[in-house]
Amino acid sequence: MAGTTRPRVLVAGMQYELNSFVAGTAGLERFRQFRLAEGEDVWSIARGEEVAGARDVAQACGIDLVPAILGFGGAGPILEDGVYEFFRDRILAALEAESGRIDGIYLPLHGAMATVGTPDAEGDLIGRIRARVGPRLPIVASFDMHANFTAAMARGLDAAVGFKTCPHVDYIETGRHAMEILAGAVTGRTRPCLVHRKIRMMTPPEGHDTTTGPMREVVARLRAIETLPGILAATVIAPQAWMDVPELGWSVIVVADGASALDLASAEADRLGLFCWSQRERYLVQRTALDEALAIAAANPPGNPPVVMTDAADAPSAGSYGDSAVVLAALLARPPMRGPVLMTMTDPEAARACAAAGAGGRLRIRVGGAFQPRFFAPVDVEVRVRAVLRESYESCLPPGRIDPGLRAVVEIGGFILMVIAERQMATLDLRPFESSGLDPRAAQAVLVKSAGQFRGFYTAIAARILELDTPGPVDGVLTRLPFRNLTRPLWPFDAGLETPW
Fold first, then answer.
1. Are residue 277 and residue 389 in the same domain, yes or no?
2. Phi, psi of 209 (to 5 degrees)
């Protein structure tokens, strides 16, 4: 230990999920819009997340945490270089200030952050930290299940722990697990060693639901591995599928306690990697043509739970802006439903026009394609404004407060109820609708813009769930997207690939 009576651990994290096919770039204002804090203010923005779980364990173990910085920027386009430089410089400055006074480092990361000039921001950061503190100081990181775990990360870390749930509901558990490993390392009870296997495959996240299908069995195997003597953690990472970066692919991570357990950890990593590879076809999602889906929704009888349709290709939680009007245009081109049909739209100009008209106002607006005309065309509609809202709301997934800016709830065609917002709203839970005065349970149909995680909240209220085959930067048919930077071979881009390593 560093000579103090209680171990001291530096805490620093940056969390962002790249979508390479979304137009434009994003700057530091994106993190300020979501969550960004330094020093002791970190604790005020970390409720319900990994850092909160880590803090619980640290307090129980008599470890003092030294918060440096924590930022969450959601998901979106590639970042400007200055964003990573901002986090990097502050974290390295905190290390310099605490030199000789800390016993370990905890990094709550997402693992899918890239800038124009740095395709593996977390790997670069971890490498710089390791070079600064030397080989002996333990460094443990936690990751989202949709990270892209790289060789640079593996080289610099003593241990890594990732989410085991999708929808992600184990933030606290993951942070606790990471800090338990770090607590053992800083007190000398354990010596974590990381084993990493990269699997040459990519799959759309709609198939990553851990309550069903192959991912459920993967998680069961992870839990079983973690009961083995000498094993501290086991993680499978299935990356965000829309990162056009080198070294993209699934990862298996097993953390051994000391060199004597490395052979066991390696064998378990190999075994689990081969199982994941053998199940690759099962992760592909069956999509429903839009016309067919709307016919099914129209036939949903009164009093029945809603048909939930997902326009995953425009999912804000995977980096898109939520500005697709593809489903809206298709709805207006067919005979009207009895309704209501609930949906959301990100369109600042339309939201402000509706707000100016006020509740009860009627006007003609153009909605859709506000950010991504490459993918989405706008639609001209007559609307009646039902409500105008300016408040943020508390979200269940992701946890925390969401500020979508100005919102207008409008009625279109007598059966569509749309929430038009200035900024993106992830429809992973029911809160975007409920906070706008709408009840998804009472709808004939609900359109969510999510690539899988919505199931944790919508399965319980849905008569049926339909994955739509729609265009956009979150297209689940990965071979339709213009990847250029992947490390090949990689399944499904190289369909004849026979081995995972």
1. no
2. -60, 120
Measure the CA–CA gap between 76 and 16, rounded to whole angstroms: 8
Contact between 425 and 344 (Cβ < 8 Å): yes
pLDDT in tens, 7-28: 999 999 999 999 999 989 999 9
| Mean of pLDDT values over 48-70 | 97
Write the DSSP string, 294-343.
Answer: HHHHHTPPTTSPPEEEE-GGG-GGGT--S---HHHHHHHTSPPPSS-EEE
- Give me 62's structure tokens: 């008599």
415: left (phi over 0), alpha (psi -120 to 50) or beta: alpha
Distance CA 238, CA 218 (A): 11
The CA-atom distances, in angstroms, between 278 and each of 214, 238, 275 are 10, 15, 5
3 state DSSP class of 285: coil
Within 13 Å of residue 22, how many CA atoms lie on the same side as its CB? 28
Q: Tell me the one-letter amino acid at 259.
A: A
Residue 471 in contact with residue 232, Cβ under 8 Å? no
Q: Which two tokens stand for residue 282?
A: 């099962």
Q: Is 215 in the same domain as 333?
A: no
pLDDT at 2: 52
CB atoms within 10 A of CB 296: 16
- Report d(CA 218, CA 237) in Å as an integer: 11
203 and 339 co-located in one domain: no
Residue 1: its pLDDT value, please? Answer: 53
Looking at the DSSP assignment, which residues form a beta bridge with residue 104? 9
Enumerate residues 6+ apart whose C-beta is below 8 A from 180: 57
Distance CA 405, CA 379 (A): 22
Q: Mark whether 275 and 411 lie in a shared domain.
A: no
Within this chain, do residues 179 and 313 fall inside the same structural domain, yes or no? no
Report the 10 Å Cβ neighbour count for 187.
Answer: 15
